[in-house]
Amino acid sequence: MNIQQAKDSIRDAVTTYLSKDPAGNYIIPRSRQRPMMVMGAPGLGKTAIMSQIASEMGIGYVAYTITHHTRQSAIGLPVIEKHCYDGEECSITRYTMSEIIASVHDAIENRGHREGILFIDEINCVSETLAPAMLDLLQNKKFGPHRIPDGWVLVAAGNPPEYNASARTFDIATQDRIRVVEVEPDTDVWLRYAMSAGVHDAITFYLQVKPNNLLKVERTVDGTAFVTPRGWEDLSTVMREYDRMGMSVGIDLVSQYIRDPEVAAEFARYLDFHRRYREDYDVDSILAGDDVEPPSGNAEEKMAVASVIIGRLNSEAEEGMDLEFALSRLECMEDVDREVSVIRDMMEDNADPDTRRSCAMMLSLLKENKGQDRETVISRIREQADSARRTFDTHLTNALEYMKRGFGGGQETVSLLVGLIGCYNVVMFSRPDGPLYAYNDELLSSGRNRRIMDMLEGA
User: Fold this and answer.
1) CA 117 to CA 36: how far, in whole Å?
2) First CA to last CA across the chain, in angstroms?
3) How high does pLDDT run on average in the chain?
4) What is the pLDDT, as a whole number, of residue 100?
5) DSSP annotation of 67
6) Quick one: which of 164, 216, 193 has its CA closest to 2?
7) Tens of pLDDT along 140-149?
8) 66-92 burial, b if ≥16 CB within 10 A, otherwise e?
């Protein structure tokens, strides 16, 4: 299954495990709540979806990469205690509580998360000394004598042996006690995520043309050549900063993230092609509504222009959502110092990247307006949010009118609209009476109705 299907499967499992009867007891008993084991190549987003699930469900989240731990930190340290048995004093060995189990108790006591997800990453890549403890964890949901608290679901992840030489295969007894979710790369699904997450438009366009290069692992005489989704996303982050600073991205930088020489060289060549289109088709002028000639070249040229437009509009929507988040928090705020503390806690908790970004803007706005009275700050940010929405609606309208001038309601225009609808930020920032919904009714709904009528008439 792809990463989205894996996310849905895990969320359904957690929801089922946490369902209760009228008396408040878990319907599926602890002994029958099999841990989830997510297996797949590195960089597919296995770790990212866990915090997203917890955030969406409003439950706690504690995550550990087990390969970073020693046997002592995972299981606990032995201590000698004195006990009397049949009138004879004996020295016995006990173990202190595992750091990992203690973190779950901290989440319960400090943040009130009575239920949550305990996520253990790289569980099948542990050392020989930790392997028995991992088997005990999967089979019995405990480290040493200390159990995972009831209400907390164990989810683990690992890489298949072909991607990690240190990976081990669990025995049948362990496999018979877990639920395995195998994740395969799916470029279409990843591209929908990438457009919503603001991944650099050069990368999203390149992978539309070369979908097999999202994930690639080859062993050669010179070593292992590989490309992963994580590598593309991390490269995107750096490329955006290079763009902001006016610095050029070349093969040397690309090769640090894309560890397949052929793919790195090909993408570096494509960047020159992409820059040329960005210069030939001034996106600022397009969004401003200026009279710019629509692309008349091949399909790749048209796709490149649409990709750049989608990236810009998604970024504008993202900023607008952050401003509206800040405004909604400020309107309910009574104590600024307390609000700052709450926002920081939100960033440290199981927040997804969008929430962290919104919180960061909120803290920045509070810092910028320090010393101002509450009403002045709210008024200033409301003006910024309103301006951001007007600008976004105008730019979206101008972009689609630009495509309509060149292609009418054809495939090129529809592709731009579909790409925008695939962006979470664009959809969430758009109001039902705004241009996105109007163009959806005009270009997609009418087109669907025409196809239905054609089918009926053909029948």
Assistant:
1) 11
2) 37
3) 81
4) 82
5) G
6) 193
7) 888 777 888 8
8) beebebeebbbeeeeeeeeeeeeeeee
